[in-house]
Please model this.
Amino acid sequence: MPQTIPQAISITTVIGSVVAPVGLITTTAILLSGYTSKYSSISDQMRGLATEYRTGASTAARHRNIQEQLRLYHRRITAMWVASTLLSLALLSFVATVLVVLFSTKATHLGPAGVGTLLGGLVFVAAAIGLELYEISLARLTVAGELSDIFEGSEKAGSQNRH
Model:
């Protein structure tokens, strides 16, 4: 019986050591799912604009507007692709952290390999979130570009009505 108590404590310690990395895995997977959804949405929007551009039914001004929007969409989708890649690397790092803890002879602390994989994962997540913030700023420019020709005409009309 005395041997089972230290085993129970050891298993409890191991479980306690892997709870935080498993929580990070879950959180990162949720972020990755959101980024993947956004990537898909941006791709669909790009395809729609590219189709409109290629049909040639639009005015020259609209063609220029579409070109500018497609440049922004390209930057946005690139940012989301890199962010998704970083989140995938973070997931691998967090899984490695769990494996290091599970196979560690001293499960009471992470050790250099565990700390390295945990910090690596956190750096990847931070970089991915930074790219998400960059993409959000580009999204604002995309919307502004889509509406520029509409607002341009209404601003002219509004200024003529004021005079």
In short: Helices lie at 4-55, 60-103, 111-162. The chain is about 90% helix and 0% strand.
